[in-house]
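Hi there. Long-time user, first ticket. I'm pasting a complex I've been working with (about 785 residues overall). I'd like to know whether the download I got is complete or cut off, because the file seemed smaller than I expected. Thanks.
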Amino acid sequence: MPNDYTQYNTNAAALVDAHVSAYMSFYEAAVVLYLIAALVFAGYWFFRSWTAIGAGIVFASLGIIAQCTSLGLRWHYSGHVPWNDLYGSLSVVSLFTAVLFLIFGARYRIWFAAPLAFAFSDALLAYAKGWNKGLEPLVPSLQSSWIYIHVPVVLASYAAFLIGCVLSIMYLFKKADEDRILNAAGQSVGAAVSTETADLGVSRPRWLSWVDALPASSKLDVAAYRVNSIGEILLTAGIILGALWAHVSWGSYWQWDPKETAALVNWLVYAAYVHLHTRPSMRGTVAAWVSIIGFATVLFSYFAVNIVISGLHSYK
Amino acid sequence: MSAPTQALRTRSLYDQTLDVLSNVMFPVVVFAVWAALTLIGTSVDQNIPPEQYYQEYPAPVANAILRLHLTNIFHSWPYIALVLLLLVSMTVCTFRRVIPKRFPKDRALPIENFGLHAQRQSALDFETTSHVVDEYAARRGFAVRTQAIDGAHWLFADKQKWARYGVLVAHVGFAVIVIGVFIGWLLGYRGELQIYEGQTASVPQAGLLVTLSHFVGRFQPVQTKQGVVYQASRFQSDVHVAGSGGDTNASILVNHPYTSAHGVYLYQASYGFGGDFAVLRNGKPVALPGINGRLGPQDVIALPGTSRVIEYGTMLGPSDPSQAPAGVPLPKVDTYAIWAFHDQIPVTQKPILLAVGQTYDVGDGYVLKALPPVAWSGLTYRYDPGELWVGAGALILTAGFVMALFFMPIKLYARVRRAAGATVVDVAATTTKGNAMYEDDFDALVNGLADRLAPPASGPIGETVNAYA
Ligand code: HEM
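Hi, the file is complete. Here it is re-exported in full:
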């Protein structure tokens, strides 16, 4: 029987285990529930209805419950934390994205960003499937209580950066739209008093009508800054916790290992971002691009370092 | 006094340098360059022999890597210089901008000039309104001061004023880490010990003697597509440590180092098994010093009086199953792979497999008997007097980041005045992070205040409705 999970990993036999199919079924439920949540949340873009937000929250919460069950079962059956491989850690990133999004949505009023945030994190979760290695013993280098704290903190920072990146992408769309309206207003003096797009006859593709549901670009910049700042705080703490772990595990805080240096790249880009944001002229478009580049480097340290670069090392 | 533009032109080179260093865009550029170099260092394999770059990359790329010295980025001087540059800029910025930055003084300012400002009518009289405004601000967590200026009631309040020290705290934390790393580099030491079971090694700088009593390696079979592989699940060195701090027995595991009374750490770093053989000539043992229980790959035993040589290859078996390739059945008993040479020519096509307990007739009266392998443990020792600095610096840095990025100092102004029979309240706020950051909260604050200044809800209208009900 062909096995879906064998795309990359070598541990095929471990995957036909009944315990593995138990946690994978909850995983699959979560993938579907987050997708539904993303679609339902998108209802807010087009109908501006709070019912869409409420229903989205329900589906997102069900997805979170399913994912927690999946991770909990994996934890239970393997006898160790479920974030010891790429599948587990990707799964935790998407769980944290969902949880953080619900918190930020309530605290910073960014529900309008939910469709993109849930679509992104669901894509990561769906992609994680190919990396499931089943139930393996924990290698000695990971047998430490630091794994409970270092890894989740770093993964939470990735979740925050994902949401920050989504807000920055939305900023760019909104800003382009505002500029279009301003241009049109500049051309027809009589329409300048009105900010209604329709009145100005601004040519905007229909599929972009959702940008009307977004707040002013300056607010999007603020929201992205807040979320990225929290990500940078978490990443700082995560790297420091990793260094302390390395201290007890390897006898050195820092080994210039690709995973460490890649984390340093992420940290530096977001350090540049928070410094840049102190300059009023650099807020907005420049900051948004740095935030997007920052998330690209997060994806680099996640995928390139785990798959390509460490792969080079392991096949030597 | 000259005009500002002229002043700028006549500033000394020293002042201009400080201006550049304390400009926020300076660290942004350094961060960007630092990130770019680190990205290259992460992607391009570091510290491998030059030939290997030509194997891994097309020739022009390999040439570029070698000529641009991208083979050891993290220890190159431009890379270290970047960190130093950042430290200098941070220091200059701290003294020129962060420390002198003051909160605005309590002064009556034109409220309409603030980016965030609002005006509300109060239904209450002047005294009550003033009281409500003061109490409202205090309840919202502001530290409140009031003054009567030109017949108006002024409120000056601030919140999270301490948060503006966040940048300072973070920068101090960064500097403390650098100091700790420097102290560790200056006064600390580290090294490796390779100890066979039953042997003793010393940490010379600390006068510690470490004896390996026993090494435990545990492995679990894992089924893979290629067959069973054995994954390590435990490495443990049981040691006896003797030194000026007294004698102790300890178990050293990965992630669980031993710490001596004087702060020397011993870490489980590596392990292995040395091959062991008894050499017999005409049935009598021959003592060959230096090799017993210590044979590693490519070690040789030259048999005296002959041109025969035994070369040790490797050991396969239950003591170290992780060495077995996937799918290769593991021998029940530890087995050595060796080569025998006569006049420098191997006597067999394939390695000779010799299980523990078995003998091999070498020739010329010599017999080799395989004895059980002897485990060795690789321990890293390390003394780092800077570690407390690094730990403290890390905490300070994180605390500073939380203060600087999560909290925001706010200064609030409110003026209550009588105007044409009514009471008018003007409110304004400034923050260190730009108005947009506080806009929503400011609106909420003003609306909350307006609610309290509105006419009492249980007024005549409510009664009227009740009367008709
Ligand atoms: C200064 C030192 C360290 C830094 C900066 C660091 C940084 C990171 C980062 C950025 C990640 C998330 C990215 C990813 O999953 O690829 C991560 C994950 C992880 N780290 Fe560390 N780390 C450090 C030390 C350690 C040490 C000493 C260990 C254990 C021996 C460790 C074990 C892990 C594990 C198990 C994961 C998640 C599993 C995975 O994604 O494969 N880290 N670390």
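A couple of notes from our side: Chain B touches chain A through 56 residues (CB under 8 Å). Chain B has four domains: 10-100, 114-160+408-467, 186-272+379-396, 274-371.
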